[in-house]
Amino acid sequence: MNRLGKSLIGHCGLAIVLGSGLPGCLVKRAESAASPQPPAGEVWLTGRQVRDAQIAVGDVAVRPMGTQLVTSGKIAFDDLRVAHIFSPVTGRVTRILAEPGTRVKKGAALAVIESPDVGNAFADVGKAAADLVAAEHDLNRQKDLYEAHAGAQKDFEGAQDNFGKARAEMDRARKKARLFRGGTADAVTQEYTLRAPIEGLVVARNVNPGAEVQGQYAGGTAVELFTVGELDRVWVMADAFEMDLGKLRVGAPVSIRVVAYPERPFTGRVDWISDTLDPASRTAHVRCSVENPGRLLKPEMYATVSIAVDGDRAPAIARTAVLRMADQTVVFVFAGDLGGGGAKFVRRIVAVNDDNGEDYLPVVRGVAAGDRVVTAGAILLSGML
What we know:
Layout: H1 3-34, E1 42-45, H2 47-52, E2 56-59, E3 61-64, E4 68-76, E5 82-85, E6 91-96, E7 103-104, E8 109-114, H3 116-147, H4 153-178, E9 184-186, E10 191-195, E11 200-205, E12 212-213, E13 226-229, E14 233-241, E15 253-258, E16 261-273, E17 283-291, E18 302-308, E19 313-318, E20 323-325, E21 328-339, E22 342-349, E23 351-352, E24 360-365, E25 372-376, H5 378-382
Antiparallel strand pairs: 1-22, 2-25, 3-19, 4-14, 4-18, 5-13, 6-8, 6-12, 7-11, 8-10, 9-10, 11-13, 14-17, 15-16, 15-18, 16-17, 19-24, 20-21, 21-22, 23-24
């Protein structure tokens, strides 16, 4: 075969190959034209993809914002429902009659203390009574002598002064002994029974048998022996900054959360706002009265306190709609239907105010009231870009 023949065959073969591939190229171009690709920053989903991804959409609406003032707090006893019990006498604890967790009635015995203060107190009463009788006898005698002009006026006046001193000492001794009436004092055995001043639960016991205790009336530093109280209602002491005081009001509803029960809120109301500020922290104490069913809240627990306040109205989006991507804050906005349940979503950069700690965030820019944003499944859309 000559060179010309080979050239003709080569061109014919090339033409056949090109001819056979041409219909396939035309089909691919047609398919591409029929299925356009979404532009950058958009995600197009079919109806099935929307359902499988569980995409939820919510409106950007004008809402009251800043309706919750969130601050820290601490659980405390209701002062009117707790008694911190000290010993009025100095001595040694001989018996413990109530254990922590025991419910006691008012006047129930808590402990027995052997104390010389008991004997001294009753001895002082007896001595004062005897001195008063002697002073009274001397006063009557001096009075008779003075009226009969057989005694000096000076002696009569001295007897009057001694009688007044004896009567004052008698009153002092009786009042000191009366201080022991909160318990039960036995002058013979010098035992003092410490009793509960209120009905409640023995929350704490800080003394053991054989311990030496200091009396409140001895002038030393007394130690709290028992704490008796009720925990079905407690106080939460919260701190409010100076700039927030204008928003607070007595009677405002509060919601309390603690680490021990993160999913269980406790509710109450503000019942007192301090009239002074702490000079160091520049905060005011806010006291909230909170019901405590099951006595789950314990004194000294730390708490997160949300106080209802009056706020301004602004366009807001759900916190779940906001994504943090690198140094940008974005949301996905519903941009229209594709038919068959399909939808277009557009990524949009926004600015929101995230200082209030609420479920809805006020929008600074990026979306407006009436826009529809993805509130569930936005993280899946970000992975499809």
